[in-house]
Amino acid sequence: MVGLGLVLGLLWFLISCRQASFYDQVVPVENGHWSYGDTLRFSFSVADTSSRYNLYLTVEHADTFPYQNIYVQIHTTYPDGQRFVKLLPLDLFDTAGQPNGACGGGICSTEFVLQQRAILPQVGQYEIAVEQYMRYSPVLGIRALRLRVEPAAAASSSER
Fold first, then answer.
1. Which of 18, 39, 42, 101 could form a disulfide with 110 if both were Cys (CB 3.0 to 4.6 A apart)?
2. Chunked in runs of 10, what are the mean pLDDT values of the chain (160 residues)?
């Protein structure tokens, strides 16, 4: 009985040491066909401008996705309406064609660090919109995008 109490106490301690994500949202891509007009939007509110945050984008895609990477444009809108745009290539597979993420059942999930120790300097609502920026539309095989924002102190030392 004492051993069970110690195990449960240790488990509770380990769980409580890892802070939960500040924001974690998955947006599906309808039918796995991501068209130019299908901008995926994430919105979250910030009250503490003194903290730093790590931002991660996860792409869920078919393991048969026909290209090594996908280009996306990230639009960040601050609470005051100021906008920033960044074009990013996201490598879903390495040069040998092996997935860069975890795969199972025909689906892969690849996580990318968008920014580490980011300062979100304004109190209020932020929006991050992601649009596919390939040479063709629709892009087939992208199932969903996930945006995760967590306090920088909560990130592991390996920085996923």
1. 101
2. 40 44 93 94 94 96 95 97 97 95 96 95 97 95 97 60
